[in-house]
Structure to design on (313 residues):
């Protein structure tokens, strides 16, 4: 592994403010990365407070172990997917936790590691797997998915207006050749969108393929539901998202888990009262200060939402 560059964690003070409710509690960092947020959390916790860090990426796990060496007695790292938070915790013999943090997407380190194939800024094999033991990679998607499925991915996960034209160009190209590299994908996008719109389009297309490779939307949907189950009453879940699709999913999931009524689906039958599971702590998403966005480009698109597990009656 090339040397891990530790970046300042996004919205750090805001994360601590919303997440930390009990200094002796157990917390899950479901997106450990280099361990930036986890370290700051451990610094705040008392001696019996612990952090369980989860990541799919072996390089992140190794980097965080180094970064958190000092806290090794209160820090447990697990290779896994945060969508399996319940089984990760039960394998550790833990039934419930005081807080859960998800700082979504890929880390700057992953983007900057050219060989992982996340970036259109360098030419590398089309990979994009966070977990290198997973079978599905970007190469498979671009060479095997049919035109309609590709267009759908570009549109749904990249919000790309030229999704159909780009998908058509990809499919036409691969009649004679395979698409093996990020450079080939970039060149195909450039055939459709040139000039000043190119960089933003590349960012959207690469993002969309990455989301499909890693199942990011489905992972998040499952994780929110199960996280709400494993939180202690009064415990909190904090999620930082970086694009509108994720933020919308977080907003809607929190809203449905905090509902006091569910619709009967029928005008004549009244709505059905239910016991809310979460209480929303952030009416609007929390965003980074001007100072932080000036210092850290990644913070510009960050949106934090937090919710608290309702105390049982
Ligand atoms: C934005 S980075 C987190 C950075 C971290 N908060 C820090 O301060 O260093 C996101 C990390 O989450 C991991 N990740 C993304 N989706 C995941 C999932 N479903 N399960 C576990 N880890 C995941 C990525 O591999 C990456 O290392």
């Amino acid at each position: 592994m090339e040397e891990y560059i530790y970046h300042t964690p996004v919205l750090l003070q805001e994360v601590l403010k919303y997440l930390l409710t009990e200094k002796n509690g157990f917390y899950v960092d479901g997106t450990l990365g280099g361990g930036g947020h986890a370290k700051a959390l451990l610094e705040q916790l008392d001696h019996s407070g612990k952090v369980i860090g989860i990541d799919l990426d072996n390089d992140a796990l190794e980097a965080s172990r180094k970064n958190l060496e000092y806290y090794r007695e209160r820090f447990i790292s697990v290779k896994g997917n945060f969508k399996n938070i319940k089984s990760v915790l039960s394998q550790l013999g833990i039934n419930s936790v005081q807080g859960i943090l998800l700082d979504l997407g890929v880390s700057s380190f992953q983007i900057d590691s050219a060989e992982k194939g996340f970036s259109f800024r360098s030419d590398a094999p089309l990979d994009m797997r966070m977990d290198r033991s997973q079978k599905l990679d970007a190469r498979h998607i671009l060479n095997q998915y049919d035109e309609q499925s590709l267009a759908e991915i570009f549109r749904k996960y990249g919000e790309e207006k030229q999704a159909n034209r780009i998908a058509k160009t990809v499919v036409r190209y691969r009649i004679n050749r395979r698409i093996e590299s990020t450079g080939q994908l970039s060149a195909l996008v450039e055939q459709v969108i040139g000039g000043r719109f190119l960089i933003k389009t590349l960012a959207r297309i690469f993002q969309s393929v990455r989301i499909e490779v890693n199942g990011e939307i489905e992972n998040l949907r499952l994780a929110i539901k199960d996280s709400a189950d494993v939180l202690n009453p009064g415990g909190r879940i904090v999620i930082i998202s970086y694009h509108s699709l994720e933020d919308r999913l977080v907003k809607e999931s929190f809203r449905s888990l905090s509902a006091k009524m569910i619709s009967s689906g029928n005008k004549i039958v009244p709505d059905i009262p239910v016991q809310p599971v979460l209480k929303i702590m952030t009416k609007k998403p929390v965003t980074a200060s001007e100072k932080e966005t000036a210092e850290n480009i990644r913070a510009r698109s960050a949106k934090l939402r937090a919710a608290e597990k309702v105390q049982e009656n």
